[in-house]
Amino acid sequence: MDPETSIRPLLAIAVPALAALAVVLLNNREKLRDVVSPLAAIALFAIVASMAPTVLAGGTVDLRLFEILPGIDFAFRVDALGMVFATVSSLLWIVAAFYSIGYMRHLNEHAQTRFFACFATSLAAAVGGAFAANLFTLVIFYEVLSLVTYPLVYHHEDEEGWTGSRKYLVYLMGASKSVLLAALALTYHIAGSLDFVAGGLLARADASAALLTVVYFCYLFGFAKAAVMPVHAWLPAAMVAPTPVSALLHAVAVVKMGVFCVLRMLFHVFGVELVGKLGLGIATAYLVSFTILMASVYALTRDDLKARLAYSTVSQLSYVVLGVVLLSPVAMVGGIIHIAAHAFSKITLFFCAGSIYCASGKRNISDMAGIGRRLPWTMGAFFIASLSMIGVPPTAGFVSKWYLATGSVDAGHIAFLAVLLVSSILNAAYFLPVSYTAFFETETQESRTPVREIPMMTIPLVATAILSVLMGIFPGYFLALADGVVK
Amino acid sequence: MGFPLLSLIVFTPVAGAAVLMFLRRDDAVRWTALGVTILDLALCVAMLASFDTTTHEMQFTERRPWVPALGITYALGIDGISALFVFLTALLGWICVLASWAAIDRKVKEFMVSLLVMQALMLGVFCALDLFLFYVFWEAMLIPMYLIIGVWGGDGRVYAAFKFFLYTLAGSLLFLIGVIVLYFHGGETFDILALTAQDLPFQVQSWLFFAFLVAFAVKVPMVPVHTWLPDAHVQAPTAGSIILAGVLLKMGAYGFLRFSLPMLPQASVHYSTLMLALSALAIVYGGLLALAQDDLKKLVAYSSISHMGFVTLGIFALNLRGLEGGILQMFNHGVTTGALFLFVGLIYERTHTRSMAEYGGLMKAAPVYTAFLALFVLSAMALPGTNSFVGELLVLSGGFAADLAIGATAVLGALLGAAYLLGMYRKVALGPASVARFSIRDVNAREMAAILPLAAFVLWVGLYPKPFLDIIDASAKHLLMQVHGEGSGQ
Fold first, then answer.
1. Predicted local confidence at residue A445, as pLDDT
2. Rounded to 5 degrees, what are φ and ψ at A58?
3. Could you please report the per-residue DSSP string of A146-176?
4. Looking at this predicted complex, what is its ipTM?
5. Considering only Cβ atoms within 10 Å of each terminal Cβ, which end of chain B, N or C, has fewer?
6. A378 within a domain of the structure (yes/no)
7. Cβ proximity of A207 and A190 under 8 Å
8. Does the pLDDT at position B1 exceed 60?
9. Residues spanned by the domain of B350
10. Terminal-residue alpha carbon distance, chain A
């Protein structure tokens, strides 16, 4: 199918960007300001959805703006992989926009204008990255995303906030300005272009295997947002941010930008064939397996609920990479749809953590005894999302793990099937006790304060829990997109 | 020979300086200086607008006999290598006037005269096509710069000005010897284009290469002849720092481009590895020095050494990407570091300290200042989307093509850059507000007028560098052909 040229990719970036501007301009008119984000979120989703039919039919939506350097344009191309990321981010922004208002108002947070403006800009950056047609355009949005999420991480402006945000920036910028920069310069040197090419930009490059291997690992660790160990420590540090940020950005937009970039690199810079030929697939698979298991062990040891969720995210992101580097089509589909499956479930879990915090002021799991009876909806949603993280049918997590598991058999690497099984057991070991504590342990005396559901927060988290189940039952849309990437 | 546009550009500031002599009131002096520099900038814009990007030939050439007996002519002309720097000099000219508006409150007239004369001489250096004329402009620059640092500088100004003078003069003397050797080898002419065309024996080329290297390396400055720079910068008034970083440092790199590469091609190729190694050393060593500073101005000064290392790295990669990246990075460095010195000056005017330990939390007191500071800090660390990233990507790509190890070392320098720049921003702008004891006001309209054009160039070059690269392109290709011989202009 011929590429279709349209202004819509640019429009999708402009809507949240203009929303951020509107938020700033409406600084003094709180009610009006708070309406902007949900409206922009709905508009953004509509724009993204309008391009879905073209992409599902195997086409692309293109927009070429101008030439930056010879072989490098400022250009957008909406394809199946970008569509997965954009759909998930824009859909969940709608829910998160409502949730944020509830959260920020309930806690009477300071600097709300800055918060909502940066939040909206983050979405512009995420969508821009999803639709970027080459590495140059992609890294511009990648870096913008690092920058605009930085004020969201130091939001509380206390000691903890400054320390956490510093670590956040040091890791992300450090990786960008060292290995990622080297990877980009080397790619441009080798290929004379930074375009994404079906089958891989470097597939026919005239370069030694050693050099290509170096470039490959420079990308893998340069995209530190993917949090492959050892460049993962920024993610738990980012948990000092307000919970809506942890939910949408550090479980969906930012971290998915990371794995999205890694996938772009695998599919469209190196190409699956070259990765296999260089023997890098299995090497990476071992590397990310280590991350999967190690991060789960870390998660087990954390009593702070958000910290536990953060390490769980580190682990789950590597599932996505694992699926793709196994290089079997089935596993690749599993990896790609896990972007969506993990997003729906993990945002639910973070929403629950925020809801618990707002309703009761509690952050540590050990303090949450019996809270399920006070917050039945919240903890019910938490349980459903936990099941999805573990991979129990009929949730979204089951579908992606099924593809990952059969894919690893298909690829002939039973070792990774074992990794999936062990990590699922670990998932259960660190998620189910939370529900157990909440529902079956008796409340201690001092925690008998009035704890009630906050509708503005409960409704969004129930919605995302339902999405987690819906995707488990109707995974067709994401499966079709994933097939489009792999074919 | 048409309209003498270049002469007009070079001598407009001199005429302006003459007018200033007759003015009494300080404000009249300031406004006139501003008017003259804006007029000069307008002329440069007109020049760029009619610049032909398809040829490497010299354009807007003027040629008048001056001392025919010695073969000296008054010859001006520009090509793609010098055009951007003529523009950059004029752009920074009026920003220097704005930056000195309130900061210079004694001997205003004398200061503005020095500033305008300085601008004329710098423009002359970039336009000169006669080696003798070039040398006159080159040496004469020392005088106003010496005055700007030595009269209007900080407490250690005399020492700093003298050190600057001595270093540069020592380098210039070797350059002078080189010029004389060239003169007698080249058939007793000072015509730069004629001297470029001749074929010198390798032995002579080597000697000249090192004579020029000393002269230009002091200006750039390259490690180990960089030690005058932090002193000069710290003591110079803001406008002096902007000129130093924005234009004077470019003179050294320009010298490599105009003399070393085209006149001494075999020597340039032969010693390119040495030059690449020196560049990588400057990148890393300058970065480490910057990392260790508490004085804001010293930090920016040392960062210049690192950034200019990228420029010389690009030039001596001797391939098209490196060369174009190096030249573009010279322009970018002028814009970005000029802006950073402007910002250092702005905050010094308010707090009378440059120690970063005493700043903090400036974001609350001066949100506009810190927002633009963020932009220039990101530009200095070459974040994608800003001007320096384009240059850095080209330079590194060229550097990797020349030598993988050198490229990797340069990347280390880029990482150091991120470390000291982000650290600086954190100490100045973020954190608890320890600046509360200073009464900080945000930037005013005059200061915004100086900031905005520089900010515009950061994003323009960052997102749409094509017009700038188009100016460079033909001349860079031609230069490479001169270096590698005909038919190899890759």
1. 62
2. 95, 5
3. HHHHHHHHTTT-SHHHHHHHHHHHHHHHHHI
4. 0.90
5. N
6. yes
7. yes
8. no
9. 273-490
10. 14
Q: How many domains does chain B have?
A: 1
Of A106 and A469, the structure prediction assigns the larger pLDDT to A469
pLDDT at residue B402 above 60? yes
Does residue B214 lie in a domain region? no
pLDDT digits (tens, 9 = 90+) for B200-229: 889 889 999 999 999 999 888 888 888 888
Residues 6 or more apart whose Cβ sits within 8 Å of residue A453: A355, A359, A375, A376, A377, A378
A185 in contact with B at a CB cutoff of 8 Å? Answer: yes
Q: In A, which residues are within 8 Å of B381 by CB distance?
A: 173, 177
Q: How many domains does chain A have?
A: 1
pLDDT at B471 over 60: yes
Say how far apart CA A196 and CA A264 lie, in whole Å: 8
Confidence of residue B24 (pLDDT cuts 50, 70, 90): confident
C-alpha dist (Å) from residue A441 to A308, A370, A437, A449: 20, 5, 5, 16
Residue whose structure tokens are 């990007």:
B53
Compute how many other C-beta atoms are within 10 angstroms of the C-beta atom of residue A108: 7
CA atoms within 13 A on the CB side of B224: 0
The answer to whether residue B365 is domain-embedded is yes
What residue in A sits closest to B395 (Cα-Cα)?
A185
pLDDT digit string (tens) for A267-319? 999 999 999 999 999 999 999 999 999 999 999 999 999 999 999 999 999 99
Rounded Cα gap, residues A197 and A181, in angstroms: 20
Pick the residue of B377, B430, B468, B472 with the most A CBs within 10 A to test the interface with A by mutation: B430
| Predicted confidence band of residue B438 (pLDDT cuts 50, 70, 90) | low
Chain CA centroid to CA B170, Å = 20
Cα A447 to chain centroid, rounded: 34
For chain B, list residues whose CB is within 8 angstroms of any CB belonging to chain A: 321, 378, 381-385, 390, 392-394, 396-401, 404, 407-408, 411-412, 414-415, 417-419, 422, 426, 430-431, 463-466, 469
Coil, helix or strand for B345? helix
Domain containing A425 equals: 279-487
- Rounded to 10 degrees, what is the CA torsion of B469, B471, B473, B479? -130
Res B490: pLDDT: 43
- Please tell me the distance in Å from B293's CA to the nearest CA on chain A: 19
Contacts (Cβ under 8 Å, ≥6 apart) of B240 = B145, B148, B149, B152, B153, B232
pLDDT one-digit tens code per residue, B94-107: 999 999 888 888 88
Token pair recorded at residue A205: 């490059």
Angstrom distances, CA of residue A357 to CA of A151, A306, A452, B191 = 21, 10, 11, 78
Interface test with B, best of A181, A190, A211 (most B CBs within 10 A): A181
- List the beta bridge partners of residue A134: A195
User: Considering the domain boundaries, does residue B103 fall inside one?
Assistant: no
Instruction: Return the number of other C-beta atoms located less than 10 Å from residue A96's C-beta.
Output: 29
B449: in domain: yes
- Angle of the A396-410 helix axis to the A305-325 helix axis, nearest 10: 40
In a domain, A268, yes or no: no
Three-point CA angle A150, A154, A156, nearest 5°: 150
Q: Closest partner residue to B384 among A140, A166, A182, by Cβ? A: A140
In a domain, A75, yes or no: no
Which stretches within B186-319 are classed as H helix?
Answer: 192-197, 202-219, 228-235, 238-243, 249-255, 261-263, 265-270, 272-291, 296-316
- Please choose, from the candidates A77, A65, A191, A195, the residue with its C-alpha nearest in 3D space to the C-alpha of residue A129: A77
> What integer is the mean pLDDT of A382-400?
93
Q: Is the pTM of this model over 0.90?
A: yes
Chain A 327-366, residues with CB within 8 Å of chain B CB atoms = none
Q: CB B463 to CB A74 under 8 A? A: yes
Condensed to tens digits (0 to 9), the pLDDT of residues A256-266 reads 999 999 999 99
Is residue A218 pLDDT above 90, yes or no? yes
